[in-house]
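During the practical work, I worked with a single protein chain and the tokens that describe its fold, as given directly below.
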Amino acid sequence: MRGWIGFAAGMAGYVGLLVLSQRLLAGGIQDQGTRLLVSLMPMLPAAIVCAAVVAIIRRMDEMQRKLQFEALALSFAGTALLTFGYGFLEGEGYPRLSMFVVWPLMALLWTIGTCLGRLRHG
């Protein structure tokens, strides 16, 4: 339960700091150093989310950890293949994609991997 509380608190903090940072940046901060710090503010609670996910996985039983490991492996390898492949397509004129595309892709593949693992291990 503690891991999920940390996860929820981290996500709430992330959303709050994301909204705040975007408003501050839209307000016209002139100093480049300050703009960089404000841009990175949401990453502080994102680190809390990361730690919470690790804590949640550590408290899982061996089978659940195995399932999550396999799902994460699929996510890692699938993201690498798709992003490298698309990188070659960018060299042929395809539009450049933001790095913000990578994490949702990885999350989608992790979810697919988890669902496949649950079907397989029933």
User: Anything to note?
Assistant: The first helix runs from residue 2 to 26.
